[in-house]
């Protein structure tokens, strides 16, 4: 359970934006501004020292407003939007993040007064430093091959086919990796290889 706590502590806090029902931004936390710095204030035109057109800010806001408008149009009888409509991906200069929108306010959200948009960074692929893992945990060459396959998200069957070994042998290698790393799951293995 301590390892799970470490994994949770290692995650970044989500960004939070709160809009009124007219899509006016009322609140943004520090994490949201770190992910979307163009929301902080309109950019300054360096030649004239005055606010520039703010094109990036407007494009970002347009994508977020589009998500908010989508859930407002598709509200069911109890005031909640379909879960496939309340999510979107936003690309910015700071990377890619997921957006999830939900209603706030009113008794049981039947009369929403605000929309909260949660932003979370998306890490497209986790790279494992194999030599660091080898040195730290004393893994064999075959265990490192299995670890690389685990980090790619392969199932035991796929690992066995890829390495031309039986699934039972894959399971034995995974047990040895977990024992050497003093962990109890694949998720914990990945947490220890970052």
Task: Report a brief summary of the structure.
This protein is an alpha+beta fold.
Report on the architecture of this protein.
With 194 residues, this protein is of the alpha+beta class. The chain has 2 domains: 11-121, 2-Layer Sandwich (Beta-Lactamase), CATH 3.30.450; 130-192, Winged helix-like DNA-binding domain superfamily/Winged helix DNA-binding domain (Arc Repressor Mutant, subunit A, Orthogonal Bundle). Helices cover 43% and strands 20% of the residues. The protein is built from 8 helices and 7 strands; from the N terminus they run αββαββαβββααααα. The strands form 2 sheets. A 5-stranded antiparallel beta sheet has the order 2-1-7-6-5. Strands 3-4 form a two-stranded antiparallel sheet. A hairpin with a 4-residue loop joins strand 3 and strand 4 (50-51). Helix 5 (141-151) packs across helix 7 (167-181) and helix 6 crosses helix 7. The longest helix has 19 residues, at 55-73. The protein is elongated.
Unreliable runs, pLDDT <50, ≥5 residues? 43-47
SSE string: HEEHEEHEEEHHHHH
Number of domains: 2
Through-space gap between termini: 18 Å
What would you report as the Rg, rounded to the nearest angstrom?
23 Å
Average pLDDT number: 79
CATH architecture of the largest domain: 2-Layer Sandwich
Write the CATH fold name of the largest domain. Answer: Beta-Lactamase
Shape: elongated
Please give the count of helices.
8
Could you give the count of β-strands? 7
Strand content: 15-25%
Q: From the helix content, strand content and strand pairing, which structural class follows?
A: alpha+beta
Helix content: 40-55%
Main β sheet profile: 5 strands, antiparallel
């Amino acid at each position: 359970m301590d390892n799970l706590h470490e994994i949770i502590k290692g995650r970044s806090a989500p960004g939070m934006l709160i809009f009124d029902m007219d899509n006016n931004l009322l609140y943004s936390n520090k994490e949201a501004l770190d992910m979307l710095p163009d929301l902080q204030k309109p950019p300054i035109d360096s030649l004239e020292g005055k606010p520039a057109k703010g094109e990036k800010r407007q494009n970002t806001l347009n994508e977020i407003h589009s998500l908010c408008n989508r859930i407002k149009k598709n509200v069911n009888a109890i005031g909640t939007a379909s879960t496939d409509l309340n999510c979107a991906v936003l690309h910015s200069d700071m990377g890619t993040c997921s957006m999830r929108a939900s209603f706030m306010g009113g008794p049981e959200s039947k009369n929403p007064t605000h929309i909260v948009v949660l932003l979370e960074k998306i890490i497209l692929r986790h790279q494992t430093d194999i030599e660091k893992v080898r040195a730290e945990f004393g893994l064999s060459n075959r265990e490192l091959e299995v670890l690389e396959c685990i980090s790619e998200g392969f199932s035991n069957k796929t690992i066995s086919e890829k390495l031309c070994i039986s699934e039972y042998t894959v399971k034995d290698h995974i047990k040895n990796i977990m024992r050497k790393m003093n962990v109890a799951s694949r998720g914990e293995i990945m947490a220890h290889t970052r």
